[in-house]
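INFO  loader      accepted 1 record
INFO  loader      residues=113
INFO  predictor   begin
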Amino acid sequence: MLEALRVSVLFVLTAVAEIVGCYLPWLVLVQGRTPWLLLPAALALAFFAWLLTLHPQAAGRTYAAYGGVYVVVALLWLWRVDGVAPTRWDILGGTICLLGMALIAFQPRTVAA
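INFO  predictor   done
INFO  writer      dumping tokens
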């Protein structure tokens, strides 16, 4: 149970780092904000890449499961940062993504003999 909590928190931190790393350049390119935002963006993306290495699963399984968490964190970002309330379809889609993530990340493991 603690491992599932650790992995879940790690997925959320990974998603936040990736979103910050992509959102800051968006502010520069779309909203004309200072190019200095590209420095913390690069650091956030480096942190994102490092966080991915901390996941206990094989890389492909980590990326597949991470995608579900990313979708939900992006919807929370939409709501809290962009100020756009998620629709019921967003919530349903996010729920489906989290169910998929749980199936992939927390599937029963067989012990090799």
